[in-house]
Amino acid sequence: MDASLKSRIESLITASPVLLFMKGNKLMPQCGFSNNAVQIFNALGVPFDTFDVLSDQEIRQGIKEYSEWPTIPQIYVKGEFLGGSDILIELYNSGELKEKLAIALAS
Fold first, then answer.
1. Domain 3-106 classification at class level
2. Binding positions
3. What gap in Å lies between CA 37 and CA 82, rounded to an integer?
4. Which residues contribute to the annotated binding site for [2Fe-2S] cluster?
5. How do the domains of the chain map onto residue ranges?
6. Residues 6 or more apart from 99 whose CB is under 8 A from it?
7. What digits encode the pLDDT tens for the residues 30-76?
8. Mean per-residue pLDDT for 84-93?
9. What are phi and psi of 86, to 5 degrees?
């Protein structure tokens, strides 16, 4: 990955405490997995930002390389990669997600 793309991705990640790289946006998710993530954040009442990877092919491919995670959506909390839709669902069902977000957003 070139330095320019890495810098763009890092800027996006650090600009928001909770960032969801997804297909579509929070009002119009373009895939079921992205929709699952949006619904979880909405259910928790957590403020979050999104980046539509369909709008930027360079970011769409680059974020997969950056995180070493092959699928979209991808969730970052306070700059740390949390995982994809499956991990988000797991953390939500166990109650861990609510705790992680409360801690991250309080600091």
1. alpha beta
2. 31
3. 12
4. 31
5. 3-106
6. none
7. 999 999 999 999 999 999 999 999 999 999 999 999 999 999 999 99
8. 96
9. -65, -45
